[in-house]
Design goal:
Layout: E1 3-6, E2 26-31, H1 34-37, E3 42-43, H2 44-63, E4 67-71, H3 82-93, E5 97-101, H4 106-117, E6 123-126, H5 137-142, H6 150-161, E7 165-166, E8 169-170, H7 202-210, E9 215-216, H8 230-248, H9 268-272, H10 278-290, H11 296-320, H12 348-360, H13 365-378, H14 383-393, H15 399-410, H16 427-433, H17 454-465, H18 467-470, H19 477-485, H20 488-503
Parallel strand pairs: 1-2, 1-5, 2-4, 3-9, 5-6
Antiparallel strand pairs: 7-8
Helix pairs in contact: 6-11, 8-10, 8-11, 10-11, 11-15, 12-13, 14-15, 17-20
This protein binds flavin-adenine dinucleotide (FAD) and iron/sulfur cluster.
Length: 508
Protein backbone atom coordinates (compact mmCIF):
# COMPACT_ATOMS: atom_id res chain seq x y z
CA UNK A 1 0.00 0.00 0.00
CA UNK A 2 1.32 3.42 -0.97
CA UNK A 3 0.47 6.94 0.09
CA UNK A 4 1.09 9.51 -2.64
CA UNK A 5 2.26 12.84 -1.24
CA UNK A 6 1.92 15.71 -3.69
CA UNK A 7 4.37 18.61 -3.45
CA UNK A 8 3.34 21.75 -5.37
CA UNK A 9 5.92 24.07 -6.98
CA UNK A 10 5.56 26.66 -4.20
CA UNK A 11 5.79 24.08 -1.39
CA UNK A 12 9.53 23.48 -1.39
CA UNK A 13 9.89 23.35 2.39
CA UNK A 14 12.44 20.63 3.04
CA UNK A 15 11.86 21.11 6.78
CA UNK A 16 8.19 20.09 6.60
CA UNK A 17 7.29 17.37 9.13
CA UNK A 18 6.48 15.07 6.18
CA UNK A 19 10.20 14.56 5.70
CA UNK A 20 11.11 13.80 9.32
CA UNK A 21 10.99 10.06 8.69
CA UNK A 22 11.79 7.89 5.71
CA UNK A 23 9.23 5.26 4.78
CA UNK A 24 8.94 2.96 1.76
CA UNK A 25 5.16 3.22 1.61
CA UNK A 26 5.24 6.98 0.86
CA UNK A 27 5.94 8.38 -2.57
CA UNK A 28 6.65 12.09 -2.97
CA UNK A 29 5.42 13.45 -6.30
CA UNK A 30 6.50 16.66 -8.03
CA UNK A 31 5.42 17.56 -11.55
CA UNK A 32 6.16 20.18 -14.19
CA UNK A 33 2.79 20.75 -15.84
CA UNK A 34 1.37 23.04 -18.52
CA UNK A 35 -1.57 23.66 -16.18
CA UNK A 36 0.85 25.71 -14.06
CA UNK A 37 2.93 27.34 -16.81
CA UNK A 38 -0.07 28.49 -18.87
CA UNK A 39 -2.73 29.94 -16.52
CA UNK A 40 -1.20 33.36 -17.25
CA UNK A 41 1.70 34.44 -19.50
CA UNK A 42 4.74 34.14 -17.21
CA UNK A 43 8.17 35.71 -17.10
CA UNK A 44 10.78 33.21 -18.29
CA UNK A 45 12.71 33.41 -15.01
CA UNK A 46 9.64 32.55 -12.97
CA UNK A 47 9.09 29.28 -14.85
CA UNK A 48 12.79 28.52 -14.78
CA UNK A 49 13.18 29.28 -11.06
CA UNK A 50 10.24 27.17 -9.96
CA UNK A 51 11.17 24.15 -12.10
CA UNK A 52 14.87 24.38 -11.16
CA UNK A 53 14.01 24.61 -7.47
CA UNK A 54 11.58 21.68 -7.78
CA UNK A 55 14.27 19.54 -9.45
CA UNK A 56 16.68 20.51 -6.66
CA UNK A 57 14.11 19.58 -3.99
CA UNK A 58 13.53 16.20 -5.66
CA UNK A 59 17.28 15.60 -5.73
CA UNK A 60 17.69 16.47 -2.05
CA UNK A 61 14.77 14.26 -0.99
CA UNK A 62 16.17 11.34 -3.02
CA UNK A 63 19.61 11.86 -1.48
CA UNK A 64 18.03 11.65 1.96
CA UNK A 65 16.47 8.29 1.10
CA UNK A 66 12.88 9.28 0.30
CA UNK A 67 10.99 7.74 -2.62
CA UNK A 68 10.39 10.45 -5.22
CA UNK A 69 8.53 10.48 -8.54
CA UNK A 70 9.44 13.50 -10.67
CA UNK A 71 7.46 14.18 -13.82
CA UNK A 72 9.35 16.44 -16.23
CA UNK A 73 7.80 18.87 -18.69
CA UNK A 74 9.04 16.75 -21.63
CA UNK A 75 7.93 13.36 -20.22
CA UNK A 76 5.64 11.76 -22.87
CA UNK A 77 3.40 10.31 -20.12
CA UNK A 78 2.81 13.76 -18.60
CA UNK A 79 -0.88 14.72 -18.91
CA UNK A 80 -0.06 18.30 -17.81
CA UNK A 81 -2.85 18.48 -15.24
CA UNK A 82 -2.16 17.73 -11.57
CA UNK A 83 -5.23 15.59 -10.74
CA UNK A 84 -4.98 13.56 -13.98
CA UNK A 85 -1.31 12.77 -13.37
CA UNK A 86 -2.04 11.75 -9.78
CA UNK A 87 -4.89 9.48 -10.86
CA UNK A 88 -2.66 7.63 -13.36
CA UNK A 89 0.05 7.18 -10.77
CA UNK A 90 -2.41 6.08 -8.08
CA UNK A 91 -3.83 3.42 -10.41
CA UNK A 92 -0.36 2.17 -11.41
CA UNK A 93 0.81 1.92 -7.79
CA UNK A 94 -2.54 0.79 -6.37
CA UNK A 95 -2.14 3.68 -3.92
CA UNK A 96 -4.52 3.71 -1.00
CA UNK A 97 -4.53 7.49 -0.39
CA UNK A 98 -3.29 10.85 -1.59
CA UNK A 99 -2.03 13.58 0.72
CA UNK A 100 -1.36 17.19 -0.21
CA UNK A 101 -0.31 20.33 1.60
CA UNK A 102 -2.80 23.20 1.87
CA UNK A 103 -2.50 25.13 -1.42
CA UNK A 104 -2.09 28.88 -1.15
CA UNK A 105 -3.91 29.76 -4.33
CA UNK A 106 -7.69 29.52 -4.47
CA UNK A 107 -7.55 28.06 -8.00
CA UNK A 108 -5.49 25.04 -6.86
CA UNK A 109 -7.30 24.65 -3.58
CA UNK A 110 -10.61 24.43 -5.43
CA UNK A 111 -9.27 22.11 -8.12
CA UNK A 112 -7.81 19.60 -5.66
CA UNK A 113 -10.81 19.77 -3.34
CA UNK A 114 -13.30 19.19 -6.18
CA UNK A 115 -11.24 16.34 -7.56
CA UNK A 116 -10.85 14.71 -4.15
CA UNK A 117 -14.66 14.62 -3.71
CA UNK A 118 -15.03 12.23 -6.64
CA UNK A 119 -11.86 10.19 -6.25
CA UNK A 120 -11.96 6.45 -5.64
CA UNK A 121 -9.34 6.82 -2.89
CA UNK A 122 -9.27 9.37 -0.07
CA UNK A 123 -7.39 12.67 -0.48
CA UNK A 124 -6.23 14.31 2.74
CA UNK A 125 -5.05 17.92 3.07
CA UNK A 126 -2.39 18.77 5.68
CA UNK A 127 -0.98 22.08 6.87
CA UNK A 128 1.87 23.57 4.82
CA UNK A 129 3.47 24.57 8.17
CA UNK A 130 4.57 27.87 6.72
CA UNK A 131 2.43 30.82 7.80
CA UNK A 132 2.12 32.42 11.22
CA UNK A 133 -1.65 32.73 10.90
CA UNK A 134 -4.47 30.56 9.61
CA UNK A 135 -6.18 31.44 6.34
CA UNK A 136 -9.04 33.02 8.26
CA UNK A 137 -7.15 34.84 11.00
CA UNK A 138 -7.56 38.31 9.43
CA UNK A 139 -11.25 37.86 8.66
CA UNK A 140 -11.83 36.73 12.27
CA UNK A 141 -10.12 39.87 13.57
CA UNK A 142 -11.96 42.25 11.30
CA UNK A 143 -15.29 40.39 11.19
CA UNK A 144 -17.91 42.95 10.18
CA UNK A 145 -15.60 45.98 9.81
CA UNK A 146 -15.83 48.01 6.61
CA UNK A 147 -12.14 48.73 6.50
CA UNK A 148 -9.37 46.33 7.37
CA UNK A 149 -6.49 48.33 8.79
CA UNK A 150 -3.15 46.52 8.51
CA UNK A 151 -1.74 48.46 11.45
CA UNK A 152 -4.38 46.98 13.76
CA UNK A 153 -3.56 43.47 12.55
CA UNK A 154 0.20 44.12 12.83
CA UNK A 155 0.05 45.26 16.45
CA UNK A 156 -1.88 42.14 17.33
CA UNK A 157 0.77 39.99 15.62
CA UNK A 158 3.60 41.77 17.45
CA UNK A 159 1.93 41.09 20.78
CA UNK A 160 0.96 37.50 19.91
CA UNK A 161 4.45 36.54 18.73
CA UNK A 162 6.29 38.82 21.20
CA UNK A 163 8.33 40.43 18.43
CA UNK A 164 10.13 43.67 19.36
CA UNK A 165 8.12 43.79 22.58
CA UNK A 166 9.19 44.59 26.11
CA UNK A 167 6.92 44.30 29.17
CA UNK A 168 3.80 44.37 26.99
CA UNK A 169 4.91 47.50 25.09
CA UNK A 170 6.60 47.99 21.73
CA UNK A 171 10.36 48.32 22.02
CA UNK A 172 11.35 51.99 21.70
CA UNK A 173 7.85 53.14 22.66
CA UNK A 174 6.41 53.21 19.13
CA UNK A 175 4.80 50.50 17.03
CA UNK A 176 5.79 51.96 13.70
CA UNK A 177 8.79 54.00 12.54
CA UNK A 178 7.60 54.63 9.01
CA UNK A 179 8.09 58.39 9.22
CA UNK A 180 11.87 57.71 9.56
CA UNK A 181 11.85 55.49 6.47
CA UNK A 182 11.31 57.90 3.63
CA UNK A 183 14.69 59.09 2.46
CA UNK A 184 15.75 59.46 -1.17
CA UNK A 185 19.04 57.75 -2.12
CA UNK A 186 21.74 59.95 -3.63
CA UNK A 187 24.45 57.31 -4.17
CA UNK A 188 25.62 56.64 -0.62
CA UNK A 189 25.82 54.34 1.23
CA UNK A 190 26.79 52.02 -1.63
CA UNK A 191 24.31 49.37 -2.71
CA UNK A 192 25.43 45.98 -1.27
CA UNK A 193 27.09 43.50 -3.63
CA UNK A 194 24.69 40.93 -5.06
CA UNK A 195 25.69 37.92 -2.95
CA UNK A 196 23.41 35.45 -4.73
CA UNK A 197 24.91 32.36 -6.35
CA UNK A 198 24.90 32.14 -10.17
CA UNK A 199 23.42 29.09 -11.90
CA UNK A 200 23.54 27.89 -15.48
CA UNK A 201 20.13 26.53 -16.42
CA UNK A 202 20.42 26.50 -20.18
CA UNK A 203 19.48 22.80 -20.45
CA UNK A 204 16.34 23.21 -18.38
CA UNK A 205 15.47 26.36 -20.34
CA UNK A 206 15.79 24.41 -23.58
CA UNK A 207 13.40 21.74 -22.19
CA UNK A 208 10.88 24.47 -21.38
CA UNK A 209 11.17 26.07 -24.81
CA UNK A 210 11.00 22.70 -26.62
CA UNK A 211 7.82 21.87 -24.71
CA UNK A 212 6.23 24.95 -26.35
CA UNK A 213 5.73 26.95 -23.14
CA UNK A 214 5.17 30.63 -23.97
CA UNK A 215 6.83 33.28 -21.80
CA UNK A 216 8.18 36.83 -21.85
CA UNK A 217 11.11 38.66 -20.24
CA UNK A 218 14.80 37.82 -20.12
CA UNK A 219 15.47 34.15 -19.18
CA UNK A 220 19.11 34.82 -18.12
CA UNK A 221 19.49 31.06 -18.12
CA UNK A 222 23.29 31.22 -17.85
CA UNK A 223 23.39 33.95 -15.20
CA UNK A 224 20.43 32.79 -13.21
CA UNK A 225 20.57 34.11 -9.63
CA UNK A 226 17.47 33.14 -7.68
CA UNK A 227 18.03 30.86 -4.66
CA UNK A 228 17.17 27.30 -5.60
CA UNK A 229 17.45 25.56 -2.25
CA UNK A 230 17.29 26.32 1.44
CA UNK A 231 21.05 26.60 1.83
CA UNK A 232 21.29 29.30 -0.83
CA UNK A 233 18.30 31.11 0.65
CA UNK A 234 19.91 31.12 4.13
CA UNK A 235 23.14 32.51 2.68
CA UNK A 236 21.14 35.24 0.98
CA UNK A 237 19.30 36.05 4.22
CA UNK A 238 22.56 36.24 6.19
CA UNK A 239 24.14 38.58 3.62
CA UNK A 240 21.04 40.79 3.63
CA UNK A 241 20.94 41.08 7.44
CA UNK A 242 24.60 42.12 7.44
CA UNK A 243 24.76 44.45 4.46
CA UNK A 244 21.22 45.47 3.46
CA UNK A 245 19.12 45.62 6.63
CA UNK A 246 21.09 48.43 8.34
CA UNK A 247 19.91 50.78 5.56
CA UNK A 248 16.60 49.10 4.70
CA UNK A 249 14.53 51.54 6.75
CA UNK A 250 16.10 54.76 5.50
CA UNK A 251 15.85 53.88 1.81
CA UNK A 252 12.81 51.61 1.76
CA UNK A 253 10.88 53.96 -0.53
CA UNK A 254 13.82 55.21 -2.63
CA UNK A 255 14.26 54.49 -6.35
CA UNK A 256 17.32 54.93 -8.51
CA UNK A 257 18.53 54.36 -12.06
CA UNK A 258 21.93 53.46 -10.59
CA UNK A 259 20.91 50.72 -8.17
CA UNK A 260 18.09 48.33 -8.99
CA UNK A 261 17.71 46.52 -5.67
CA UNK A 262 19.02 49.20 -3.27
CA UNK A 263 18.70 47.74 0.26
CA UNK A 264 15.85 45.32 -0.38
CA UNK A 265 16.29 41.67 0.58
CA UNK A 266 15.19 39.92 -2.67
CA UNK A 267 13.91 37.18 -0.36
CA UNK A 268 10.31 37.09 -1.60
CA UNK A 269 10.89 34.14 -3.96
CA UNK A 270 12.59 32.04 -1.28
CA UNK A 271 9.83 32.94 1.19
CA UNK A 272 6.95 32.32 -1.20
CA UNK A 273 8.18 28.91 -2.35
CA UNK A 274 8.77 28.18 1.34
CA UNK A 275 12.51 27.58 1.39
CA UNK A 276 12.56 30.05 4.28
CA UNK A 277 10.09 30.29 7.14
CA UNK A 278 8.88 33.82 7.95
CA UNK A 279 9.65 33.21 11.64
CA UNK A 280 13.37 32.66 11.02
CA UNK A 281 13.61 35.77 8.82
CA UNK A 282 11.87 37.89 11.49
CA UNK A 283 14.03 36.35 14.23
CA UNK A 284 17.27 37.19 12.42
CA UNK A 285 16.18 40.80 11.92
CA UNK A 286 15.18 41.12 15.58
CA UNK A 287 18.44 39.52 16.76
CA UNK A 288 20.44 41.96 14.60
CA UNK A 289 18.64 44.85 16.30
CA UNK A 290 19.27 43.46 19.83
CA UNK A 291 22.94 42.91 18.92
CA UNK A 292 23.20 46.61 18.02
CA UNK A 293 23.89 45.85 14.34
CA UNK A 294 20.88 47.61 12.85
CA UNK A 295 18.74 50.61 13.91
CA UNK A 296 15.32 49.95 15.39
CA UNK A 297 13.56 51.76 12.52
CA UNK A 298 15.21 49.43 9.99
CA UNK A 299 14.44 46.22 11.92
CA UNK A 300 10.87 47.31 12.67
CA UNK A 301 10.25 48.42 9.08
CA UNK A 302 11.48 45.12 7.68
CA UNK A 303 9.69 42.96 10.26
CA UNK A 304 6.43 44.84 9.57
CA UNK A 305 6.59 43.74 5.92
CA UNK A 306 6.68 40.07 6.88
CA UNK A 307 4.89 39.78 10.22
CA UNK A 308 2.36 42.44 9.19
CA UNK A 309 1.83 42.92 5.47
CA UNK A 310 2.57 39.39 4.24
CA UNK A 311 0.25 37.62 6.71
CA UNK A 312 -2.42 40.30 6.47
CA UNK A 313 -2.47 40.20 2.66
CA UNK A 314 -2.98 36.44 2.78
CA UNK A 315 -5.91 36.94 5.18
CA UNK A 316 -7.51 39.46 2.81
CA UNK A 317 -7.08 37.03 -0.08
CA UNK A 318 -8.85 34.13 1.62
CA UNK A 319 -11.61 36.36 2.95
CA UNK A 320 -12.31 37.84 -0.49
CA UNK A 321 -11.89 34.92 -2.87
CA UNK A 322 -13.15 33.81 -5.32
CA UNK A 323 -14.62 37.17 -6.42
CA UNK A 324 -11.78 39.54 -5.47
CA UNK A 325 -10.22 39.57 -8.96
CA UNK A 326 -13.48 40.93 -10.40
CA UNK A 327 -13.51 44.10 -8.25
CA UNK A 328 -13.46 47.26 -10.31
CA UNK A 329 -14.52 50.22 -8.12
CA UNK A 330 -13.72 52.85 -10.79
CA UNK A 331 -14.97 50.72 -13.69
CA UNK A 332 -11.62 51.00 -15.47
CA UNK A 333 -11.56 49.11 -18.77
CA UNK A 334 -8.51 50.18 -20.79
CA UNK A 335 -6.09 47.52 -22.06
CA UNK A 336 -2.41 47.75 -21.12
CA UNK A 337 -0.25 49.79 -23.51
CA UNK A 338 2.10 47.65 -25.60
CA UNK A 339 5.17 49.01 -23.76
CA UNK A 340 4.25 46.97 -20.66
CA UNK A 341 5.78 44.05 -22.63
CA UNK A 342 8.76 45.90 -24.12
CA UNK A 343 9.65 48.74 -21.75
CA UNK A 344 9.76 51.07 -24.77
CA UNK A 345 8.29 54.29 -23.45
CA UNK A 346 9.70 57.82 -23.23
CA UNK A 347 8.60 58.07 -19.59
CA UNK A 348 11.86 57.39 -17.81
CA UNK A 349 10.32 56.14 -14.57
CA UNK A 350 8.17 53.56 -16.36
CA UNK A 351 10.86 52.63 -18.83
CA UNK A 352 13.23 51.97 -15.94
CA UNK A 353 10.77 50.07 -13.74
CA UNK A 354 9.40 47.95 -16.60
CA UNK A 355 12.76 47.20 -18.22
CA UNK A 356 14.08 46.16 -14.81
CA UNK A 357 11.03 43.91 -14.35
CA UNK A 358 11.63 42.33 -17.76
CA UNK A 359 15.35 41.82 -17.08
CA UNK A 360 15.27 40.78 -13.42
CA UNK A 361 11.69 39.50 -12.90
CA UNK A 362 11.77 41.84 -9.92
CA UNK A 363 10.97 45.41 -9.01
CA UNK A 364 10.86 46.65 -5.46
CA UNK A 365 7.73 47.75 -3.69
CA UNK A 366 7.74 51.45 -4.54
CA UNK A 367 8.43 50.77 -8.22
CA UNK A 368 5.47 48.36 -8.25
CA UNK A 369 3.19 50.70 -6.29
CA UNK A 370 4.17 54.28 -7.10
CA UNK A 371 5.42 53.97 -10.66
CA UNK A 372 3.73 51.11 -12.54
CA UNK A 373 0.65 50.82 -10.31
CA UNK A 374 0.29 54.60 -9.98
CA UNK A 375 0.32 55.07 -13.76
CA UNK A 376 -2.10 52.15 -14.30
CA UNK A 377 -4.62 53.62 -11.89
CA UNK A 378 -4.34 57.19 -13.18
CA UNK A 379 -4.66 56.01 -16.80
CA UNK A 380 -7.72 53.85 -16.01
CA UNK A 381 -6.22 50.51 -17.06
CA UNK A 382 -8.35 47.45 -16.45
CA UNK A 383 -7.52 46.11 -12.95
CA UNK A 384 -7.80 42.50 -14.10
CA UNK A 385 -5.34 43.14 -16.96
CA UNK A 386 -2.99 44.87 -14.52
CA UNK A 387 -3.36 41.93 -12.12
CA UNK A 388 -2.53 39.40 -14.83
CA UNK A 389 0.57 41.34 -15.82
CA UNK A 390 1.84 41.50 -12.22
CA UNK A 391 1.02 37.82 -11.70
CA UNK A 392 3.07 36.93 -14.76
CA UNK A 393 6.05 39.22 -14.48
CA UNK A 394 7.40 38.90 -10.94
CA UNK A 395 9.47 36.04 -9.63
CA UNK A 396 7.55 36.15 -6.32
CA UNK A 397 4.07 36.42 -7.83
CA UNK A 398 1.63 33.88 -6.47
CA UNK A 399 -1.99 34.89 -6.52
CA UNK A 400 -2.54 34.92 -2.73
CA UNK A 401 -0.01 37.72 -2.34
CA UNK A 402 -0.08 39.41 -5.74
CA UNK A 403 -3.85 39.83 -6.09
CA UNK A 404 -4.62 41.86 -2.93
CA UNK A 405 -1.50 43.96 -3.51
CA UNK A 406 -2.59 44.76 -7.07
CA UNK A 407 -6.37 44.88 -6.84
CA UNK A 408 -6.56 46.33 -3.34
CA UNK A 409 -3.44 48.28 -2.49
CA UNK A 410 -2.36 49.43 -5.92
CA UNK A 411 -5.57 49.80 -8.00
CA UNK A 412 -8.06 50.59 -5.16
CA UNK A 413 -10.40 48.34 -7.14
CA UNK A 414 -11.97 47.01 -3.91
CA UNK A 415 -13.16 50.54 -3.08
CA UNK A 416 -10.91 50.89 -0.05
CA UNK A 417 -11.19 47.66 1.92
CA UNK A 418 -7.42 47.32 2.10
CA UNK A 419 -5.97 50.77 1.35
CA UNK A 420 -7.17 53.87 3.14
CA UNK A 421 -6.71 55.98 -0.02
CA UNK A 422 -5.68 55.42 -3.65
CA UNK A 423 -1.88 55.36 -4.01
CA UNK A 424 -1.51 57.96 -6.76
CA UNK A 425 0.86 60.87 -7.24
CA UNK A 426 1.97 63.47 -9.74
CA UNK A 427 5.60 63.76 -10.89
CA UNK A 428 6.50 65.55 -7.64
CA UNK A 429 6.55 62.35 -5.54
CA UNK A 430 8.48 60.33 -8.14
CA UNK A 431 11.00 63.15 -8.46
CA UNK A 432 11.40 63.39 -4.69
CA UNK A 433 12.07 59.67 -4.26
CA UNK A 434 14.17 58.96 -7.38
CA UNK A 435 16.52 60.29 -10.03
CA UNK A 436 14.16 59.19 -12.83
CA UNK A 437 12.92 62.66 -13.80
CA UNK A 438 16.41 64.02 -14.51
CA UNK A 439 16.95 62.10 -17.72
CA UNK A 440 13.33 62.07 -18.83
CA UNK A 441 11.94 63.17 -22.19
CA UNK A 442 9.04 64.78 -20.26
CA UNK A 443 9.19 67.84 -18.05
CA UNK A 444 8.30 66.98 -14.46
CA UNK A 445 7.12 70.55 -13.74
CA UNK A 446 4.90 71.02 -16.80
CA UNK A 447 1.27 70.08 -16.65
CA UNK A 448 0.05 70.98 -20.13
CA UNK A 449 1.64 70.54 -23.56
CA UNK A 450 3.46 67.84 -25.52
CA UNK A 451 6.43 67.77 -23.14
CA UNK A 452 4.44 67.85 -19.92
CA UNK A 453 4.87 64.86 -17.61
CA UNK A 454 1.79 62.66 -18.18
CA UNK A 455 1.46 61.96 -14.44
CA UNK A 456 0.58 65.62 -13.74
CA UNK A 457 -2.57 66.05 -15.82
CA UNK A 458 -3.64 62.45 -15.20
CA UNK A 459 -3.39 63.04 -11.45
CA UNK A 460 -5.77 66.00 -11.38
CA UNK A 461 -8.08 64.44 -13.92
CA UNK A 462 -8.29 61.29 -11.76
CA UNK A 463 -9.50 63.24 -8.72
CA UNK A 464 -11.85 65.41 -10.74
CA UNK A 465 -13.52 62.51 -12.55
CA UNK A 466 -13.82 60.44 -9.35
CA UNK A 467 -15.14 63.24 -7.16
CA UNK A 468 -18.35 61.40 -6.25
CA UNK A 469 -16.46 58.31 -5.16
CA UNK A 470 -13.57 59.94 -3.34
CA UNK A 471 -14.39 63.44 -2.12
CA UNK A 472 -15.61 62.21 1.26
CA UNK A 473 -12.41 60.31 2.01
CA UNK A 474 -10.71 62.31 4.80
CA UNK A 475 -7.25 61.08 3.72
CA UNK A 476 -7.50 62.86 0.39
CA UNK A 477 -9.23 66.02 1.51
CA UNK A 478 -6.18 68.06 0.55
CA UNK A 479 -6.39 67.12 -3.14
CA UNK A 480 -10.03 68.19 -3.23
CA UNK A 481 -9.32 71.44 -1.38
CA UNK A 482 -6.70 72.23 -4.03
CA UNK A 483 -9.11 71.35 -6.84
CA UNK A 484 -11.75 73.65 -5.34
CA UNK A 485 -9.31 76.54 -5.50
CA UNK A 486 -8.56 75.89 -9.18
CA UNK A 487 -10.07 77.93 -11.95
CA UNK A 488 -12.60 76.02 -14.08
CA UNK A 489 -10.46 76.70 -17.14
CA UNK A 490 -7.41 75.12 -15.47
CA UNK A 491 -9.42 72.00 -14.65
CA UNK A 492 -10.77 71.85 -18.20
CA UNK A 493 -7.19 72.11 -19.52
CA UNK A 494 -6.16 69.19 -17.30
CA UNK A 495 -9.08 67.16 -18.55
CA UNK A 496 -8.26 67.93 -22.16
CA UNK A 497 -4.59 67.05 -21.65
CA UNK A 498 -5.53 63.81 -19.83
CA UNK A 499 -7.80 62.81 -22.69
CA UNK A 500 -5.00 63.34 -25.20
CA UNK A 501 -2.68 61.18 -23.08
CA UNK A 502 -5.23 58.41 -22.69
CA UNK A 503 -5.98 58.39 -26.41
CA UNK A 504 -2.27 57.93 -27.14
CA UNK A 505 -1.10 55.59 -24.40
CA UNK A 506 0.94 53.44 -26.78
CA UNK A 507 3.02 56.36 -27.98
CA UNK A 508 3.92 57.90 -24.60
P1 LIG B 1 11.70 43.54 0.79
O1 LIG B 1 11.43 44.96 0.48
O2 LIG B 1 13.07 43.17 1.20
O3 LIG B 1 10.65 43.12 1.92
C1 LIG B 1 10.83 41.93 2.70
C2 LIG B 1 9.68 40.97 2.54
O4 LIG B 1 8.49 41.51 3.04
C3 LIG B 1 9.37 40.56 1.11
O5 LIG B 1 10.25 39.56 0.65
C4 LIG B 1 7.94 40.08 1.23
O6 LIG B 1 7.89 38.74 1.61
C5 LIG B 1 7.38 40.94 2.36
N1 LIG B 1 6.55 42.03 1.84
C6 LIG B 1 6.90 43.30 1.66
N2 LIG B 1 5.85 44.03 1.24
C7 LIG B 1 4.81 43.17 1.14
C8 LIG B 1 3.46 43.31 0.73
N3 LIG B 1 2.93 44.49 0.36
N4 LIG B 1 2.69 42.19 0.71
C9 LIG B 1 3.18 41.01 1.10
N5 LIG B 1 4.45 40.82 1.49
C10 LIG B 1 5.25 41.90 1.51
N6 LIG B 1 5.00 40.52 -3.05
C11 LIG B 1 5.09 39.21 -3.31
O7 LIG B 1 5.72 38.47 -2.56
N7 LIG B 1 4.49 38.67 -4.42
C12 LIG B 1 3.79 39.44 -5.29
O8 LIG B 1 3.27 38.93 -6.27
C13 LIG B 1 3.68 40.83 -5.04
N8 LIG B 1 2.99 41.63 -5.89
C14 LIG B 1 2.90 42.96 -5.62
C15 LIG B 1 2.14 43.77 -6.49
C16 LIG B 1 2.00 45.11 -6.23
C17 LIG B 1 1.15 45.95 -7.13
C18 LIG B 1 2.63 45.68 -5.10
C19 LIG B 1 2.48 47.12 -4.79
C20 LIG B 1 3.39 44.90 -4.24
C21 LIG B 1 3.52 43.53 -4.47
N9 LIG B 1 4.26 42.69 -3.61
C22 LIG B 1 4.33 41.35 -3.88
C23 LIG B 1 4.86 43.20 -2.38
C24 LIG B 1 6.32 43.66 -2.49
O9 LIG B 1 6.45 44.58 -3.54
C25 LIG B 1 7.28 42.48 -2.70
O10 LIG B 1 7.07 41.53 -1.67
C26 LIG B 1 8.73 42.93 -2.61
O11 LIG B 1 9.00 43.92 -3.57
C27 LIG B 1 9.65 41.72 -2.80
O12 LIG B 1 11.00 42.11 -2.83
P2 LIG B 1 11.96 41.87 -1.58
O13 LIG B 1 11.96 40.44 -1.21
O14 LIG B 1 13.27 42.51 -1.90
O15 LIG B 1 11.20 42.67 -0.45
FE1 LIG C 1 8.17 59.84 -14.84
FE2 LIG C 1 7.16 62.27 -15.34
FE3 LIG C 1 9.42 62.06 -14.00
FE4 LIG C 1 9.33 61.48 -16.59
S1 LIG C 1 8.99 63.46 -15.64
S2 LIG C 1 10.35 60.29 -14.99
S3 LIG C 1 7.30 60.56 -16.77
S4 LIG C 1 7.44 61.31 -13.33
Amino acid sequence: MTTIRLILGDQLNIQHSWFSEIADDRLYVLMEVRQETDYVLHHAQKILAIFAAMREMARQLTDRGHRVHYLRIDDPTNLHAIPANIDVLAAQLKANQVEYQMPDEWRLDEQLYQHSRHSAIPWRMVDSEHFLTTRHHASDIFAARKQWLMEHFYRQMRAQYQVLMSAGKPVGGQWNYDQDNRKAWRGTPAEPQDARATHDHSTLWQDIVNAGVQSFGEPSERQFRWALNRQEAIEQLTAFIQHGLPFFGDFQDAMSTKAWRLFHSLLSFALNVKMLHPREVIQQAEDAYHAGLVPLAAAEGFIRQILGWREYIRGVYWAQMPTYAEKNFFDHQRPLPAWFWTGETKMNCLSHAINQSLEQAHAHHIQRLMVIGNFSLLAGLSPIAVHQWYLGVYIDAFEWVELPNTIGMSQFADGGLLATKPYVSSAAYIDKMSDYCKGCHYDKKSRIGDNACPFNALYWDFFERNKKKLANNPRIGMAYRQLEKMDEKVIADFQHQALKIIDNLDSL
